[in-house]
Amino acid sequence: METEDLYHFPTYPLLIVISGPSGAGKDRLIARMKELGYPFHFVVTATTRPQREGEVHGRDYFFVSTDEFAQMIEEDQLLEYAVVYGDYKGIPKEQVRQALASGKDVILRIDVQGAATIRRLIPEAVLIFVTAPSEEELIARLQARKTEPPDQLKLRIATSRQEMRRLPEFDYVVVNRTGELDKAVDQILAIITAEHCRVKPRIVRL
Predict the structure, then answer these.
(1) pTM higher than 0.90, yes or no?
(2) Per-residue pLDDT for the chain (206 aa), expressed as one digit of tens each?
């Protein structure tokens, strides 16, 4: 290798997966990163679940009917999709392609099951597991949301316990402590910065 080549450091956009159990605060982390104006592309997930109060179509999720979601599957429009607590969620493939082509780092917020699919399809993706500092705190957060009936809440708690066991499948873990949201954001940014400093960069092919 020529000496001048050693001083050529090409940059490649990263595909960053933020995942973890319900109650970890993933949505709040993403919202805070958007508030702070970081130059990432935050992928908007398509879902068949009902729109919650305060959510905006096209910003928080693409809220679609079951028929529309089925059509997206038929037309191979989704990078990955899964049934999450009885509703379908999926990542629009073309949205990710266009964002990567623009040179922006792309952030996916998906469940643990979806993260495993992304790891299989795109080994170069960076997987970050977000969690609460304890199971007790995780359960308290889920109870405080009051967005599910008791049977659904019980299911989420049981699922969260199973999801915690899949932590070793991820590259990094960020503990999102109550009252320390910006610290968790800073840790995610530090991970992204470090990944861009790799001698052998991750090159995402999609």
Answers:
(1) no
(2) 455 566 677 889 999 999 999 889 998 999 999 999 999 999 999 999 998 888 889 888 999 999 999 999 999 999 999 887 789 999 999 999 999 999 999 999 998 989 999 999 999 999 999 999 998 998 888 888 766 778 888 888 888 899 999 999 999 999 999 999 999 999 999 999 999 999 999 999 88
Question: Two tokens at 170?
Answer: 């991820």
**H-state helical runs in 146-180:** 150-164
Is 134 in contact with 21 (CB distance < 8 Å)?
no
- Show the domains of the chain with their CATH numbers: 3-43+104-195 (3.40.50.300)
Conformation bin of residue 37: beta by default, left when phi > 0, alpha when psi is -120 to 50? left
